[in-house]
What does this fold into?
Amino acid sequence: MKLAAIDIGSNSIKVVVVEAAAGDSFTVLASDRETVRLGQETLVNKHISNAALQRAIDCLKQFRLLAETHGAEDISAIATAFLRAADNSSEFMRVIEEQTGLSVEVISGIEEARLIGLAASFGCAERGATTLNIDIGGGSTEISIFHGGQPLKLVSINMGAVGLTDRFIRSDPPAPNELGALRSEIRVSLQPHVEEFLAHGWSSTTATSGTATTIGVALNQVWPPASTTVTLEQLKRLNEKLAALSLAERRTFSGIPPQRADIIVAGGIVLEEVMIALGIESLQTCDWSLREGAIIDRLEKWERSSASMPGLAGEKIDGVR
It folds into this structure.
């Protein structure tokens, strides 16, 4: 069985195509991502512009072709924070389906946290560990605790690297008062959830999506040797360094993709503030996220349904524990 999942996010659109066969893991046939910035202005103005819509159409046509070229029998497309915020979300989904043939599902923040946490627990967590995962997207931040592939706590907070940059950062480099206001907003948004997470407890921490993986790469460039570990002390030093640079300078900073240079300051500060609030001294970056979670979830549902059908109960779906 070949499946594809497309994550239509506030900052980027990502696709993965996999083949599920016998075994404990699926095989990735192809993957790609493109920075489309559907959340830019949308998260503030609550409206998707025609220009943003066209960028989505162009990208999704390419990603559908990629999936079909690799033989995908089923393509799912999931949209997140920007579409939850937009007042013309129905129109966006209608036009996308007309122009690309893809039916877009907009998922809740809690479902987003569940799917991302599922991916992190399956792809990056230690077996048997209770793992907290932090995912900083363009429009929202999802935090989850998983154990044994099951969610113990799921939270989605309306703060992301694109939306916070649009709201708070006006100067180049960012002014101290802008950074102060940004940090205050993050702390206020986190405060209602801190005690609940601390009450659950966890034994390891992961961080997914572009902000976390970019920070991991940048830290390895600045303070080698290479590692997937991000410590709070390193992150503080990196954030201070990046915030002091102009946008042009951040675009040439080793490990920071030019298309992420404008939002990495806000994204890095979100990660720092979450780590401080939850008492996290170090974490592991994880390159599995929403699209992999959607694949795993689909395979698990297929396995459950096939187990109830005569003749299929003995089959095992790749990628499902």
About this structure: The first strand starts at residue 2 and ends at 8. The chain has two domains: 2-106+289-307, 124-286. The CA atoms of residues 148 and 266 lie 32 Å apart. Confidence is low (pLDDT under 50) at residues 312-321.
